[in-house]
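Module 6 notes. Inverse folding takes a fixed backbone as the condition and produces residue identities as the prediction. Think of it as a translation problem where the source language is geometry and the target language is the twenty amino acids. Below is one complete input and output pair. Work through it position by position during the lab.
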């Protein structure tokens, strides 16, 4: 989906039901920055294909908005293509964690025959685990040639969350800091993380973005943005007051 002349969202990539995953890219005159690599190799090939088609001569680089596998699953494919993958210095996933993710996918398959066939392997076809090879510790700026993008630390959902802000286009790629239609996932953190998440929301609100591309759900534009931020803020405030997340076991 073209948002501006320089910014694109790649929406609706596959993940475990009911989740789909978003990625995107920013096209400068010399470089194209891919934001998130999808949940698997097949998603990565789709993102890579669109990013290359938008400006064929550009050098590519990729960045992960966080450590969860739905945002980094395509890193191995990008790396095979000779593309550097940037991400928060705290992203260091292990092979055991990746195998546990695949097993969890398989356990969630409703059909027993498909479960017995280990069809989660089809989802993760030729997907290899790779943590970012270029580390981000602080806010930084990437110059893509004619377009500067700001890489902002926006912790809360995890300690590794970052956002990509393109000020000249008013486009903010925010990962799971703001998602639409789904309940935000608070289960990766504690009350202290949720408090930080609220601060991150204040920070991104002050940017006054015209588009927000979240990690999941529809892209938010214009008037939809305050409501999208407020709905996450409300869930966080209620969870901090209550002491547990809306999806925690205690609620069941
Ligand atoms: Zn996510």
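Target side of the pair, the amino acids:
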């Amino acid at each position: 989906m073209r948002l501006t002349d320089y910014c694109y969202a790649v929406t609706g990539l596959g993940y475990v039901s009911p989740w789909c995953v978003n990625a995107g890219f920013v096209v400068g005159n010399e470089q194209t920055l891919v934001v998130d690599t999808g949940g698997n190799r097949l998603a990565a090939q789709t993102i890579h294909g669109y990013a290359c088609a938008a400006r064929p001569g550009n050098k590519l680089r990729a960045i992960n908005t966080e450590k969860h596998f739905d945002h980094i699953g395509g890193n191995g494919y990008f790396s095979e293509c000779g593309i550097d993958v940037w991400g928060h210095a705290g992203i260091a996933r292990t092979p055991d964690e990746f195998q546990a993710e695949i097993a969890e996918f398989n356990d969630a398959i409703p059909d027993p025959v498909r479960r017995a066939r280990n069809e989660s392997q089809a989802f993760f076809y030729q997907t290899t685990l790779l943590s970012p090879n270029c580390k981000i510790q602080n806010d930084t700026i990437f110059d893509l040639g004619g377009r500067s993008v700001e890489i902002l630390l926006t912790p809360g959902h995890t300690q590794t969350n970052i956002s990509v802000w393109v000020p000249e286009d008013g486009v903010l790629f925010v990962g799971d800091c703001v998602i639409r239609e789904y309940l935000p996932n608070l289960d990766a953190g504690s009350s202290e993380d949720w408090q930080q998440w609220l601060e991150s929301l204040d920070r991104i609100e002050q940017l006054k973005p015209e588009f927000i591309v979240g990690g999941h759900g529809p892209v938010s534009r214009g008037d939809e943005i305050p409501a999208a931020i407020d709905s996450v803020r409300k869930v966080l405030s209620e969870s901090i007051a209550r002491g547990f997340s809306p999806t925690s076991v205690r609620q069941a």
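Reference fact for the lab report: The longest strand covers residues 7-14.
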